Batch of 4 targets.
Target 1
Amino acid sequence: MSTVIADKYYTVTEAAEIIGVSGARVRQLIAAGRIKAEAVHNRLWIIPAKALDRFVEEDRPTGVHADRRSG
């Protein structure tokens, strides 16, 4: 499926595919603190699988913008 590093991390592109948004949106969610990620290099972010799972499992009501959720 993907190039998950040691089955524990996703790239921004892979995370975007998993949650069905663009890579730019994933970067916005990282910047907003909604998805935890680690900077590995200048512009390279990796997202721990647990952090992405946590984001996916959040109660996300239809029509509610991700940045407007309580949490």
Target 2
Amino acid sequence: MYAMNKHLFCLLLMAISACHAWAGIVQDERTAREECSEYSQAGMRRCLAEKAQASEVALKQAEGKACSKLGKWIEDAKYVNLAKAKLEASNKEFVRYRESQCAFNSSLGGGAIGNALEIMRLACVFELNARRAEQLGSVTRDIPLK
């Protein structure tokens, strides 16, 4: 009986892990800060700057992939062009939103100075870029292609 329960428990854990991987769980800013917290404050800032830069690269790749998929979409050209224009506008608005949201997040540092505020901003940039990249992949994943 114990062996059977242990086996079922292992299967359940594997299923949960697979669901998390499939769902594209994005690391949040708090987790990113915790991951980088093993360094000094300057090292933490550098770690988060690297994460933010990597997320920017991933976001640009996701934007390019989404645009490319739209170009191969089985749909009338006018709808393809409209979707591409909407994607471009959405990308520009996302950048504005990210700047505003991360400035707000940074302001929650109150009287903190320098690195502390920048750490909050970089963690926010990292998370929002990662979420946007995941979102673009998700909404274009099932587009029927030529």
Target 3
Amino acid sequence: MENLRFLRKSKNLKQSEIAKIINISQQQYGKYESNQSEPAKTTIIKLADFFNVSTDEILDREKTNIKITTQDKQTLINAIEIIKKITKN
């Protein structure tokens, strides 16, 4: 379940934090990320709800699309402008 690791890291969370949120042990959550165990249907739904993605994304059946906020877009635009100024000199 490669997407689980990606989703968790995109929110800057530890395995133990996700495990606590969905009421499982950190060890069990770690097994999901490392494909040593497959979560129950109810756990897959909890994970999808928490990450605001489809269950297909949790199950690696669909690519994960990170939603970029307006603030994120503006930060990227500002960074690009700074890089342009630096490289002109």
Target 4
Amino acid sequence: MSNGLNSIKVSIFGRDYNIKGSSNDDYIKTLAAHVDSVMREIADKTGPLSSSRIAILAALNIADEMHKERQRFRELADELARELEEVLSAEAENE
């Protein structure tokens, strides 16, 4: 393809979608499977809701996952920076 985009067909919550993206097919399938899984889990827990409401709840759940992972990453990066600073300080004192 001249624009560098792949096109792949995925199924999410019983509907087929043609997704275009620059990522490889397996990655796009993995993302679609995750969205499908979250939507099905919500549908199982909530009972009859419209697919658009389930999609919104799934988006909120996935955004929550992402936010928590970003926060965890920031905390780990801060901890690593503190530890590195301690090691460098100790080395400077020993010189």
